[in-house]
Structure formats: structure tokens, C-alpha cells
Amino acid sequence: MANSQPTLLLCAGLQSGGTTLVSWCFLQRRDVNGILDANYDVLPEIPRVSEPLAWCKFTVAAFRLGEAAAHYEDAGWRVRPLLVVRDPRAVFRSLIRKPYGYNGTSAEDPPIRMRLRRFHEDWRQARDAGWPILSFEQFLLRPEQSLRGLCEELDLPWDEGMVSWPKALSDIAVADWGNPTFHRTMK
Questions:
Q1: Which of 14, 107, 151, 153 makes the best surface tag, with the fewest CB within 10 Å?
Q2: Cα angle for residues 100, 65, 154 (degrees, 5° grid)
């Protein structure tokens, strides 16, 4: 019997952790559409897309990956979480040079150390649950091999669009929020 629940690929990682680039690669697939980069302090409504798989990427800050996965499961989605990891030292060095990389003090914009703790808890949960974990450093060294391995872990066929990028930004269901550096440099 086929699963009637819609499937959501839910990707998370640290701010400046490379998640927007990974999101862009997945959204280039013929069978995927959704949210390029969700606002980190809101659990967005996932758009019903015509493609078989919905996608949402967010950064771990106000919410953890496990919390977001449970939220979307409660909403009727079959959630397939994946975590992108980047060396926290590289993340910190990247963040302190960017105007949006400040150290918050509110529930909506938590301190960087709190974000790192939440991410560490997500990493432990992902490891223990057997969720796919993508090393951003390995992805940069071997992008196609890394993406192929991630597709294998997610039981998805390979789609060449992940590395050839046939879709335009306007083809993505929700691409209005996101990493300013990515949007500036994607051309």
C-alpha cells in the first residue's frame, strides 16, 4: 500500500554553515520544490507543490531540527530530515564578518553559543537516529560525490540537475527569504 502522506525533505544546519547552497542543489531536482531558505524564527507553511517531494531548509537557531520535524509530522507530512554540518570555528569566523551575524539575546534571535548548543543536540539526534548528515567541507571538495551519497541515504535517484542547476530562482516555490551572501553571489 502506497504512503498517502506528502513527503517533506527537511534540511537544517548552522547559519553560515553552507545550507543554502545545499538547498539550491536539491531544489534543482525535477522531483523537488519548496522553500530555498526559511526564516529561522518561523516554522513556515510548506507549499503544496506539483513535484512529488517538498523541500524546506532552515538554520538551527530558534528551532532545532528535531522540533521542526515533529511539528511537520504533526501537520501530516512524512518528514525525511537531513543535517548539514560545518566546522563551528569556520561558521563563527564567517558570521563575525557579516552584518547579519550578530550575537542575539532573544528567543527569536538566540545567542550564537545557544545556537551552537542546539545544533550539537541536533547532530547527536541525527547521528543516533541514522538521519543523513552532510559534511559541508567534504561537499566543497567533492560536490557530486557528496550529493550522490546523500541521495543514496535518502533513497532518492540521482538527478543531474543537482550539479548542472537548470532551474532559475523564479522556478523555486519560495525563494524570497535567505542568505544575502548567497543571493548576491549566485550569479
A1: 107
A2: 115
Say if CB 40 and CB 106 are below 8 A apart.
no
Of residues 149, 154, 161, the one with CA closest to residue 31: 161
CA 113/CA 106 separation, integer angstroms: 13
Query: What stretch of H or E contains 168?
Result: none
- As a whole number of angstroms, the distance between CA 106 and CA 32 comes to 34
- Structure letter (DSSP) for residue 170: G
Please choose, from the candidates 155, 180, 2, the residue with its C-alpha nearest in 3D space to the C-alpha of residue 80.
155
Cα–Cα distance for residue pair 11/152, rounded to 1 Å = 16
Cβ atoms of residues 148 and 10 within 8 Å: no
pTM of the shown model = 0.90
pLDDT averaged over 10-residue windows placed end to end, the chain, 187 residues:
79 90 97 95 94 96 93 97 92 74 76 87 97 97 98 98 96 83 68
